[in-house]
Amino acid sequence: MEAEGRVPGPPLPAGGEVPGADSHLAAGALGTARGPLLAAAKVLALDDEEDDLEVFSKDTSLTEVNSFSPSVPISPSSMINQYKFEDGPELRDLFITVDDPESHITAIETFITYRVVTKTTRGEFDSSEYEVRRRYQDFLWLKSKLEEAHPTLIIPPLPEKFIMKGMVERFSDEFIETRRKALHKFLDRIADHPTLTFNEDFKIFLTAQAWELSSHKKQGPGLLSRMGQTVRAVASSVRGPVKNRPEMFTEMNNYVETFCQKINLLDKIAHRIYKEERDYFNEMKEYGPIHTLWSASEEDIADSLKGIASCIDRCCKATEKRMAGLSEHLLPILHEYVLYSEILMGVLKRRDQIQGELDSKVDALANKKTEKDLFSEEIGKLENKVERANNALKADWDRWKQNMQWDMRSTFTNVAENNLRYYEE
Amino acid sequence: MEDCLAKKMEITVSEAEKRTGRNAMNIQETYTAYLIETRAVESQSEGQCAPVDSLWRRYSEFELLRNYLLVTYPHIVVPPLPEKRADFVWHKLSADNMDPDFVERRRIGLENFLLRVASHPVLCQDKIFYAFLTQESGWKEMVNETGFQLKADSRLKALNATFRVKNPDKRFTELKHYSDELQSVISHLLRVRARVADRLYGVYKVHGNYGRVFSEWSAIEKEMGDGLQSAGHHMDVYAASIDDILEEEEHYADQLKEYLFYAEALRAVCRKHELMQYDLEMAAQDLTSKKQQCEELATGTVRTFSLKGMTSKLFGQETPEQREAKIKVLEEQIQEGEEQLKSKNLEGRDFVKSAWADIERFKEQKNHDLKEALISYAVMQISMCKKGIQVWTNAKECFSKM
After folding, report:
1. FRET label pair with B363: which of A3, A32, A379, B89, CA 20 to 30 Å apart?
2. Pairs of CB atoms within 8 A across A/B
3. Fold for domain B1-161?
4. What is the CATH architecture assignment of B165-299+320-401?
5. Burial letters for A299-327: b for 16+ Cβ neighbours within 10 Å, e otherwise?
6. Residues of B with Cβ-Cβ distance to A413 under 8 angstroms
7. Which one of B174, B216, B222, B399 would you mutate to disrupt binding with A, by most A Cβ within 10 Å of its Cβ?
8. A39, pLDDT greater than 50
9. What ipTM goes with this model?
């Protein structure tokens, strides 16, 4: 794991929150097999100088992890305190932007590249600023590498290859812009993730020049091993639901299924509302001018009519704003979560698959204690990872959804208030 | 303001009832009857209420009354009846005449009609109108006895006059234009309003789906559950609120509709004027030609080509006696004609005067009513927005607690 590369060194934050740090460093020494969890914990505990991670939600996540993984003897309170201290987005050290789409035309194909700018203060990056151009395929590559390396972590979703429903022209401005925003989101989320952010491929993605990237891509497990993985995955799903699946994951599975349903529904509803609003807006556009027309034949009430006409027009504009708010905030987010729900299903499947492997090995190698231990630990590792990721996501998402809803609501409330202000006859 | 019936009498159309009966063609049919209640207003009531008189009328009787008024008072802009069939419906509103909402709105419209007639300085004094309100049986016969149907101008004649009249009063021509414009603009407005209402209904109702999904979703969430659930509830409230809002708007639409129909009444007065004017012009023309004929006969000169002239040339002159007789007849006719012309002129002028007075009255009424309607519409919109603000503020709170 990349995280091992970090060496405990920099002075720990002063103050009451510190004592815990020692204890879990000690704990860390207990079993290197406790691998990634503790390593990550070490990392988190160490810094405020390097300010690695955006931790605004880590406190909740770690609490839950602690309650779920009794094998880790870390004093919860210290960890919580640690994170609380590091709370705050201004402590991020990796800032990414995605912009400036450009289209490239070659003999074979036409494609769009985006400029990815990275600013960082992390040590392992050679310089503090990077600017590279990437195309959609590169993002796909990154995603698959991350999935390979962390099969049970929740990798953020990428925007789809193309949208069937909207019949959007592949290179239309709207499509490019939506995609750009989604790509930015994707990278941001990876940067936020406590583990993924240190992934080597991620770093290469952000920093390598085009030729470096393509040569790097050619390395790594080939097609065959990936196929092997897929075969195993299929085999395990054929085997049927895992028998030793812990209660928690069954719950999760059920949850994800229902969630998937609901989020899809919400997505549909939101789109429907958008469409209805657009129709409403179109009709309203005609409504105002009629009053103006009428005022032309009247004398006494001409002014009142003109007044109403202008109010209606302002309503139209407000409605437009509302629609824009919807499409900018709500729709993309719902869409992202639709994709997320699919990803969650995938993650759970993979987890099941791994457990399946474990179970089968356990059955087959009932005698060889050591191997069993190894696998147990491995599965334990992975399970914990999943939990952590899952709960991190959940907490993140709850708070975040709230922000999203907030945005939408304030947009709408704004509209209503605008309406009110404007409607003075 | 003259003392009109409305001041002396309280008039309401208070109920509507479905009835079945046999109609003129002896076919069984269902119709709605409306209860008209009248009560004399005591000028300084000592707490005693006069007894309430009531009788039932159906829509066709209202129509009969109105047709009678139209013919009997052609110079008056006669208030219109509520529509026979539901027009300008948006999808939730039913076009069925038996639909309770439609019946209710019609009841209000009929009451409005009666009040308008009762407050009109001229119309309220009509005996037939009074009988309509107070005499249940025998009213139809009474109306038919006035023979008003015979006095009605034929449509064809009126159409003819519209095209052929040469010198209508400028004001009436303008008025006709205005009423055309009014009619077209109001009907356009009502159409668009119906569409807008439809769309708005859609927007609100789809939000109701949020309510359902939120509550289903909240079942699987722990921390978010409560917030979601209560937010869902607010979405339901939001979706439901549109029904009341649009019902109120329907009332506004009805007010506009009244003036849509009033435009037709205006046009009727203009048509009458055109008819009278045309009559006048024809009579004048007739008189002129007779005078000419007379002159020709008297002087023996043929100034204009006429068949008579030709035939007399071909077949010989008339005898002086014959000519004398003819001249005498013509002179009589001319006298008659001049008298007729004079009275027609007088009629015409009277008509224009009284019509114009009523039109001015109408204009004021219209401006006042429309202004009020527009204001109430704006007030409605404001209240709609206030409700929206309330709902969304509540929802926002719920969301923030998620």
Report:
1. B89
2. 127
3. PX Domain (3.30.1520)
4. Up-down Bundle (1.20)
5. eebeebbbbbbebbbbbbebbbebbebbb
6. 389, 392-393, 396
7. B399
8. no
9. 0.76
